[in-house]
Fold this sequence. Notes:
The protein is α/β, with parallel strands linked by helices and 211 residues long. 27% of the residues lie in helices and 19% in strands.
Amino acid sequence: xxxxxQGAKDAVSSCAMDIAESGLxxxxxxxxxxxxxxxxxxxxxxxxxxxLPVKWIKPEEVETVAKSKTWDTKSVYATVLESKDxxxxxxxxxxxxxxxxxxxxxxxxSTFLKKYAPYVSVIINCAYWEQRFPRHITISQLxxxxxxxxxRLLAVADISCDVHGAFEFLVKTTSIDxxxxxxxxxxxxxxESTNDKDYMYRNGILMLAVD
Length: 211
């Protein structure tokens, strides 16, 4: 809805000033952004996030930061995951090989559910996916996490826009005019502007998937 890229960046920079001056609400933090893939689209998304006061952490630090009681309220945290960070061979004797993974994905599985799903706040999915690849979180797995109150996830921006893809609970794509919907993992219901004027206030995960 901005007339220019700079206008959008200025709006994010305004948020950055608020965070730097007043800090995040304790219930929001630590706010951990997780980029899946480091390719071109990921770099574009990172460019915008860098307008905020951000502390970059390693993938292996995500759980520790999420559980920290002394996190920096005047910063957000971010990490970038490569395929080796969330994919492993099914055969315990085998080693991860990226070329082989793309050639024979049926021999691999995702570790995202265990290693990152309970700890991250925002997922920015920029990785290529098709039906033959493993999913990271299914609809039923997300419900189990939510039911067990083992979920910090606030939002997912799926730049790849794969419906029922790596994140199965992305049940639809969105448009520039209506870019968001809320997915309730308990009821498995999507709330959006076309059917609920108060959708933004529903319990659930904010989903962005402008195709």
